[in-house]
């Protein structure tokens, strides 16, 4: 059994060894939760200004939450609630954000009205621009960081019929390569220790499995309708996919053939959650999955080892779409498109500290 400290380190910087996981449960409808509440729900009011919150990312080393708000980005101190707004002078649409805690850099996607697409790099210390990197394609729908390869992966619709995953080298701030994936990719997540990039293709109803070293697609896995978001547990090496129009969350795991060494991927479980699931985040130490339900203005909590909904939390601000998890304080942050608040979810039981909302802004 893994110790809590080991899980926390692996979840924070995504280190670990690839585990072979056997397929198990079929999909079944989730009954109403019967357990007592295990989480507290509070609201953090964001600084005025900006448009709707369209992207979030958490730095677990500095406890900073980055919130893309269309025309600017907020850097929010998770412990105090204090915030700094930056990138207002860039212009265009700033919709997605990722952070590299090890290199202390923030990555923001920018688009203009003339089909220009860029990834803009900022230093965390001063929130000043380091580089602006052009990306081919008609849009950028999601962005993620691979600390092991020092790549930033941006996904969006390519110039043709296929989606595209673009790999940007953090050391040179230049595009390393790009590869075609399924149509209209909406999300990307990286399992660094396994060397795998998952791309959720919303129009194709598939997940592209991309080898992080060769930067090529090795497998394509069908899922249910409209996969809109994906998150990875860096310890169990499972991926969790919000299937928006199917109102379910699928669990993807890998199995290694001991004779051939070939790894195959499959959906091993599917949980009915209702409410149009959107953003998803994972706390690998507590083995909990947080899913924002855009249509019902709520969030559900799933256990990785169960095929039922453990807990419903809400109501929260309307149209919640983005989830970021700071595993070092076991807290999930849910951003809503139509609100200037962040819904903050913290454990109340002795899962892992802190217990309840222990931040300065909610005392």
Give the helices and strands, then pairings.
Blueprint: H1 4-13, E1 39-45, E2 55-59, E3 64-68, E4 73-77, E5 83-86, E6 93-100, E7 105-111, E8 117-123, E9 129-134, E10 142-146, E11 151-157, E12 163-169, E13 174-181, E14 185-191, E15 196-201, E16 206-211, E17 216-222, E18 227-233, E19 238-243, E20 248-256, E21 263-272, E22 277-283, E23 288-293, E24 298-303, E25 309-313, E26 320-326, E27 331-336, E28 341-347
Antiparallel strand pairs: 1-28, 2-3, 3-4, 4-5, 6-7, 7-8, 8-9, 10-11, 11-12, 12-13, 14-15, 15-16, 16-17, 18-19, 19-20, 20-21, 22-23, 23-24, 24-25, 26-27, 27-28
Question: Can I get a quick summary?
Answer:
This protein is an all-beta fold and 363 residues long. It has one helix at 4-13; strands at residues 39-45, 55-59, 64-68, 73-77, 83-86, 93-100, 105-111, 117-123, 129-134, 142-146, 151-157, 163-169, 174-181, 185-191, 196-201, 206-211, 216-222, 227-233, 238-243, 248-256, 263-272, 277-283, 288-293, 298-303, 309-313, 320-326, 331-336, 341-347.
């Amino acid at each position: 059994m893994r110790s809590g400290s080991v899980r926390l380190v692996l979840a924070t910087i995504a280190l670990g060894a690839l585990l072979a996981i056997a397929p198990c449960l079929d999909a079944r409808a989730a009954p109403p939760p019967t357990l007592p509440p295990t989480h507290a729900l509070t609201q953090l009011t964001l600084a005025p200004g900006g448009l709707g919150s369209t992207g979030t990312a958490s730095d677990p080393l500095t406890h900073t939450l980055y919130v893309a708000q269309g025309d600017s980005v907020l850097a929010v101190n998770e412990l105090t609630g204090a915030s700094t707004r930056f990138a207002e002078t860039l212009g265009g649409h700033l919709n997605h954000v990722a952070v590299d805690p090890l290199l202390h850099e923030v990555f923001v996607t920018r688009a203009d009205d003339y089909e220009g697409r860029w990834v803009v790099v900022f230093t965390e210390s001063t929130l000043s621009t380091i580089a602006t990197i052009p990306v081919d394609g008609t849009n950028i729908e999601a962005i993620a960081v691979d600390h092991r390869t020092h790549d930033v992966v941006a996904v969006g619709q390519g110039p043709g019929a296929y989606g595209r995953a673009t790999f940007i080298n953090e050391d040179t701030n230049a595009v390393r390569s790009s590869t075609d994936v399924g149509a209209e990719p909406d999300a990307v997540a990286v399992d660094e220790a396994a060397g795998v990039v998952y791309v959720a293709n919303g129009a194709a109803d598939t997940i592209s499995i991309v080898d992080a070293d060769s930067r090529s697609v090795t497998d394509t896995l069908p899922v249910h309708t409209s996969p809109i978001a994906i998150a990875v547990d860096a310890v169990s090496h499972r991926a969790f996919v919000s299937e928006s129009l199917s109102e379910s969350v699928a669990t993807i795991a890998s199995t290694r053939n001991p004779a051939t060494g070939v790894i195959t991927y499959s959906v091993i479980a599917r949980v009915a959650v209702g409410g149009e699931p959107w953003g998803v985040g994972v706390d690998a130490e507590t083995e909990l999955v947080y899913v924002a339900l855009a249509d019902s203005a709520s969030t559900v909590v799933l256990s990785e080892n169960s095929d039922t909904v453990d807990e419903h939390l809400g109501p929260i601000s309307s149209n919640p779409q983005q989830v970021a998890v700071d595993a070092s304080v076991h807290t999930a942050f849910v951003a809503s498109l139509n609100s200037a608040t962040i819904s903050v979810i913290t454990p109340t039981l002795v899962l892992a500290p802190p217990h309840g909302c222990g931040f300065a802004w909610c005392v």
